Amino acid sequence: MTRPTMRVCARCQRTTDEPVLVHEVHAATGPGFNVYACPECAPHYPPTTDPLDILDSAARRRPRLTLRVYKVGADGIATDVGSKAEIHAGGPNEPIPHSSAYPPCTCPRCRRASQ
Q1: Which one of 36, 72, 105, 109 is most buried, by most CB atoms within 10 A?
Q2: How many other C-beta atoms can be found within 10 angstroms of the C-beta atom of residue 37?
Q3: Beta strands per DSSP E along 20-110
Q4: Which of 15, 25, 14 is CA-nearest to residue 48?
Q5: Do 63 and 86 contact (CB within 8 A), yes or no?
């Protein structure tokens, strides 16, 4: 003989023996938990989202890198704010090019190292 599953509805706070899973709470530092509702209250909750769908939408964003050039005086204050360069990768799966500096440095020391 099995005991029926009893849960408390998160909306009306009544005990139900027909719980409906309406939300999964994920925790970064330990186990998460599930939120249940009774069959009458379950339609009032939005549909659950799949974590993999969230990751897919994040992967569609275009990766970018922002470089800011400025000079700092001896007192730690920026004295000459220079240019700002934003580098965007070409497509959603194309990473930013890997190098020691992007765009490559053109000083004589770096030119000798790359040859």
Answers
A1: 36
A2: 23
A3: 20-25, 33-37, 64-72, 78-88
A4: 25
A5: no
